[in-house]
Amino acid sequence: MIEDAFGESAPFSLGVEEELMILDAATYEQVAAVDRILRGVEKTSVPGRLKTELFASVFEINTNICATVGEVDEALPVLRRAAARAAEGEGLAIAASGTHPFARPEAQPIVKEERYVTFVGYGGISVRRQGVQGLHVHVGMPSADECWRCLDAILPWLPVVLALSANSPWFAGELTGMASNRAPILAELPRGGTPAAFASYAEWEAWVERLVAIGVMEDYTRIWWDVRPHPQLGTLEVRVPDQPTDVGLSSAFAALVQAMCATALADGLPGGSPRADYVQNRWAAARFGARANLVHPDGLSFPTATELAVELLDRVRPAAERLGGADVLARLDPSRCEADRQLEQTDPRDVAAALVRRSLA
């Protein structure tokens, strides 16, 4: 059995991870300088930590375990500002977005750590193309079984979260027509994208243990689904949102995910549609953002993502109020995503400059 920590932190406690880019402050090119950023903050007291990611031009910030959304909302700006100060001292800047507007991912140096080097050796171009950044929200789960029940319940609604968070319309200098280029690129990874269907946590655990035993993967963290159990942390990890530029929206999506989980375990969420509907909705949300039409989670209608977002926000608002996240949740606009902001400019360098400004606004 996989060792787990379910129930060790308070139910619906939060941990949030942001993936941020390192840019030259003058040219806005991506710069492989994660070592300099980490060195610049190592003696700074912050409510969390910074760590490496796959590419040396990206770093990840992790909050400490937060009891409330309010704690997340306080921690994330502090962590971003600490990283920005370290970057400024090196002639660099930080930027938050699902993709860099013009950098080529294949040209980005890989961090020379064994887990990343072996990953590239195994995945090849599908890994080298992962120049994408996401927001990951960990929600504390009371037990393994409730973790899996929560995953199944919120899954049909996650395309709505993707539609509202879409923030990667540019890829390698081109507007591809996707609101989120990140979503389809992530799905190129082995065991990425849409979660497989299992009847229970125990069935998922047995599958993981079998694949580890025969050498397919090292452990369950080599599963890159849009949502997955994280037994080591005792959480359900929602990985579907693009990385917001506005740090306040990172907190808002954390509030949404937390309230979805609490609603799912207490009152339930409408669902029942097959995984095939999820695949369709995931693509539509990535293509059109908030303007997408999505199959309703009950499988009986085809509303807009905006209409579904309004319904979802109404359903989870009582839980958000109980958990103290309603004011932060109210920042979400069901009619727009940040990809719309990026599309207001036509020069990718202007987009990159705006991302730098807005990342610390």
Blueprint of the fold:
Elements: E1 14-24, H1 34-41, E2 48-52, E3 58-63, H2 69-88, E4 92-95, H3 114-123, H4 125-128, E5 135-140, H5 144-154, H6 158-165, E6 170-171, E7 174-175, H7 182-186, E8 192-193, H8 201-213, E9 224-225, E10 227-230, E11 235-238, H9 247-266, H10 275-288, H11 305-323, H12 326-329, H13 338-342, H14 348-359
Parallel strand pairs: 8-9
Antiparallel strand pairs: 1-3, 1-4, 1-5, 2-3, 5-11, 6-7, 10-11
Helix pairs in contact: 1-2, 2-9, 5-9, 6-10, 6-11, 9-11
What does this structure look like?
This protein is of the alpha+beta class and 361 residues long. The chain has a single domain, classed as Creatine Kinase, Chain A, domain 2 (2-Layer Sandwich). The chain has 14 helices and eleven strands. Strands 1, 2, 3, 4, 5, 10 and 11 form a seven-stranded antiparallel β-sheet that branches. The chain is globular and about 50 Å long. The relative contact order is 0.17.
